[in-house]
Design goal:
Elements lengths: L1 E2 L1 H4 L9 E4 L4 E6 L3 H11 L8 E3 L3 H7 L8 H4 L6 E6 L6 H4 L4 E5 L4 H10 L2 E5 L11 H4 L8 E3 L10 E4 L4 E4 L8
Parallel strand pairs: 1-8, 2-8, 4-6, 5-9
Antiparallel strand pairs: 2-3, 3-7, 4-7, 5-6, 9-10
Length: 186
């Protein structure tokens, strides 16, 4: 079902997989506690379970729900939030190994897109990955996102996007894992 963000905010997201725009590319996601839907995303993308997915959040308060309690959110890197930067932190024990591919870390991002932020503010942190078949280019055009309509519960309209995926920075090992628009001085 295709919805505008205003129609979508009143929907129940329990056991639902959705597609929505972010500040980079179209994402496919679900509530982070909903492991059945997380598995469905892996299946839709033909994604190997050895590849972790990120969690998108609305605020630093939400980030603190998904990272380990002893993680210090360094202003040198969080200054890029909201924005096109995924940060790898030690995960909170409540985060499923299915999301993190069995790793003790989790990728977290606060996107700079009003639709994504409204969604995350209303429904809380969500597991999100780029909308695409695994190892294929990420989808940036709304018409291409519609090809997944039969595989998901909702698609939120968001127009065409013109960005590349986020920079991924490992805060533990202090290194860039994927270079995007944001440059981090290691």
């Amino acid at each position: 079902m295709i919805l505008t963000i205003n129609n979508f905010l009143n929907k129940n997201l329990d056991n639902k997989v959705i597609i929505f725009p972010t500040d980079t590319v179209y994402g496919i996601g679900c509530k982070y506690q909903d492991i059945t839907s997380v598995k469905k995303i892996y299946d839709i993308k033909n994604r190997d379970y050895s590849r972790p997915m990120a969690i998108l959040c609305y605020s630093l308060e939400q980030v603190k729900q998904v990272v380990a309690k002893d993680v210090k959110l360094d202003e040198k890197i969080t200054k890029y939030w909201p924005g096109k930067l995924t940060l790898i932190f030690k995960k909170d024990p409540s985060i499923s190994d299915i999301i993190t591919a069995g790793k003790a870390t989790v990728g977290v991002r606060i996107p700079n897109n009003s639709i994504a932020l409204n969604l995350l503010q209303k429904h809380g942190p969500m597991v999100v990955t780029s909308l695409n078949e695994s190892n294929e280019p990420a989808i940036t055009k709304f018409k291409d996102a519609l090809n997944y309509q039969s595989k998901v519960d909702y698609i939120i309209e968001g127009g065409d996007l013109h960005n590349k995926p986020s920079t991924v920075y490992d805060t533990i090992n202090k290194k860039v894992l994927r270079q995007g628009d944001i440059k981090i001085n290691e």
